[in-house]
Amino acid sequence: MKQYIQSKKQEMIDLLESIVNIDSSSYDKEGVDRVGALLKEQFEEIDMHVKIHRQVNVGNHLEIKAKQDSTPKILIIAHMDTVFPKGEAKKRPFSIIGDKAYGPGVNDEKASHVQALYAMKALQASGSPAINNVHIIFNSDEEIGSVSSKALIDEAAADKEYSLVLECGRPNDGVVTERKGVGHFKIHVQGKSAHAGVEPEIGISAIEELAHKIIRLQQLNDYDQGLTVNVGLIRGGLSVNTVAPQAEAEIDVRVKNKEQAMNLTKAIHEIAAEETVDGTRTELTGSIGRPPMERTDASEELFQRVRSIGKELGFNIHEVSTGGGSDASYTAAKGIPTIDGLGPIGEFSHSETEEYTDLPSFINRTILLAKIIEQLSE
User: Fold this and answer.
1) Was domain 181-290 assigned CATH 3.30.300.30?
2) What's the angle, vertex CA 210, arms to CA 204 and CA 211, rounded to 5?
3) E strands, 88-203, where?
4) What is the pTM of this model?
5) pLDDT digits (tens, 9 = 90+) for 217-228
6) CATH superfamily of 2-180+293-376
């Protein structure tokens, strides 16, 4: 398999260029579906079964197996959407400088699409029955919370023994074994307007009430314990000479474990319910949408197997914890041993200029993925 993948390097780069040069923002259904159509064609060329899960507001999701009625035990997840707007690919198309490939979404995570395809091709070319043990989900809305694809991921994960998630690999052969849970809340405060110069005493300032809440929300941060609360957006008021009748804030939260998630959610609800400025009313919406990917004994055992396979191939695999969210959280929350960051290695995802994929790792991580699938299937 190693020799096969190495011999296909230029093919892999050519396909990566084609995918990177297609805009596929989470909100660009047409673009995401073009990526999906290209991947569907590629997987069908090696006689794999591709099912399209059609969506109205986002791109269609793809579900891929060797055979329609197979019952594989390994789930592989990668997303087709990016954070970049339509027109970005034309503005800065795919390019190679030295050993690095650049372009919008090259690292997050279009290189992973090609990696998954050629790992399957290598298994097929070697005659390995492990190709029948793989269930691939390419979803279209990971960057905006996987709202429409979560049910598909949950269904696919129901009978799985392992979950391999192809977010980009970390420098120096890192993979991800722990991720924070991610939440988004919105607080809306209603007050009463009044002329700030003529009769301010009859007004009720929603901004004043929100200010008290923001201070308390920020005090919930506990960096030493990996818990973060960030009031990142605030809006409010009608004009500078009007007592503000309304104000709102949006809050990003990150938690390391389920206990933190429960306690933090309770604290945010308590802050929203407490009235400091008489006469204001507060509405709280939102939740912790992505559960934390917690490190468990089962995931530790899987990591050790991955590290051992990597060592056989000459890679020094190490584990990384990160605050970013991914679909790995959903399978980990179901108790399925999960390893993330198995994609090609790169850095600066979401950057408008610096995002890159390391091309030697593009090949090496494809070899690694194929060997992991083969050995987990034995």
Assistant:
1) no
2) 105
3) 95-97, 100-102, 134-139, 162-165, 174-179, 181-190, 194-195
4) 0.89
5) 999 999 999 999
6) Zn peptidases (3.40.630.10)
